[in-house]
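User: Let's play a game. I give you a shape written as tokens, and you guess the letters that built it. Ready? Here's round one.
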């Protein structure tokens, strides 16, 4: 009896302590906050942040802005910057932020285990949390999938006057060329750019959605775009946008060898962060299944971790093999790629 009573009391005491410490933790945690500087501006992202706050009790303050402006702002604010985290799109830009000296290395087992090594900075200065594929889209009335193969094949004169893409000032194209420099060498990458430009149906103009609309309208047969722009048209409330979607096919290039060019949306912890523990916790949250589902379902991007369900329209594009080149190469080769595109006459 004594023993069992003791055990019972012991159990109750332990439970009380756990309950009390939980309350303390919550009270304490509610005071904690992080300041995120983000260039992502998708409606679903607020849910992503709210869920983090609900789970951890850490308040998220969001500063939104254009990518390069945010990097400049953090630089200007210097050691007084309230920024804890920078989130931006494209590894080329994350590289730029790192070169500006505003990021600090994060050593997290969770991040290292969850995120494939090619989608993060080799020393943990930034991490990719979603993956975007830059693919060839085609007008289904004019081209069949069997005519398509690789990025390299877009240089073939058979496509003369049939390809469009956005301008060389766009970082997505700069990163694609930066990858090609690493894969083919500078000389061949430049030759590819020249031949591609020779195949353009019109001088580069507009964003990725404009290229998709132009291909659907028959202005060109093919375009280089990120898949989430295609998916967005397929999900549109507007019939005319769904009609555009129905005319477009998605082709993942280079499936027989290295795989399709992918880029990331990612982030890192700011060197001067005053809430470093919470900031790392947030990055770890982004690599977890809850946040990964938001990326996959919310903005039609690809998750970086396995076994996350795709949005149905994204799933309809099919599975594909991604190039496993380390995305930090896009940053390393960025200035070379800009020069090459310029010499090739890519406006
Ligand atoms: Fe985009």
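Assistant: Ready! My guess for every position:
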């Amino acid at each position: 009896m004594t023993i069992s009573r003791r055990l019972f009391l012991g159990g109750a005491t332990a439970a009380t302590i756990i309950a009390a410490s939980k309350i303390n933790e919550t009270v304490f945690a509610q005071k904690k906050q992080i300041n995120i500087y983000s260039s992502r501006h998708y409606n679903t992202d607020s849910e992503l942040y709210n869920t983090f706050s609900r789970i951890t009790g850490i308040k998220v303050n969001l500063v939104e802005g254009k990518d390069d402006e945010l990097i400049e702002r953090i630089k200007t604010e210097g050691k007084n910057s309230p920024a804890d985290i920078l989130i931006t799109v494209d590894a080329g830009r994350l590289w730029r932020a790192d070169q500006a000296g505003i990021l600090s290395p994060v050593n997290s087992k969770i991040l290292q285990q969850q995120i494939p090594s090619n989608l993060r900075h080799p020393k943990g200065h930034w991490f990719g949390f979603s993956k975007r594929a830059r693919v060839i889209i085609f007008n289904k009335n004019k081209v069949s999938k069997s005519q398509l193969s690789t990025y390299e094949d877009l240089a073939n004169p058979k496509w003369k006057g049939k390809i469009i893409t956005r301008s060389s000032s766009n970082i997505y194209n700069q990163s694609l060329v930066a990858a090609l420099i690493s894969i083919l060498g500078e000389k061949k990458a430049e030759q590819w750019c020249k031949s591609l430009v020779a195949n353009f149906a019109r001088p580069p103009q507009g964003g990725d959605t404009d290229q998709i609309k132009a291909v659907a309208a028959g202005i060109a047969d093919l375009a280089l775009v990120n898949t989430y722009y295609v998916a967005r048209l397929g999900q549109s409330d507007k019939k005319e946008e769904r009609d555009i979607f129905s005319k477009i096919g998605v082709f993942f290039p280079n499936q027989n060898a290295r795989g399709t060019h992918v880029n990331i949306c990612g982030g890192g912890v700011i060197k001067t962060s005053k809430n470093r523990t919470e900031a790392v916790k947030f990055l770890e949250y982004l690599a977890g299944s809850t946040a990964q589902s938001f990326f996959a379902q919310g903005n039609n991007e690809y998750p970086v971790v396995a076994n996350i369900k795709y949005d149905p329209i994204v799933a309809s594009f099919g599975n594909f093999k991604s190039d496993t080149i380390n995305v930090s190469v896009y940053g390393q080769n960025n200035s070379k790629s800009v020069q090459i595109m310029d010499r090739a006459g890519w406006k």
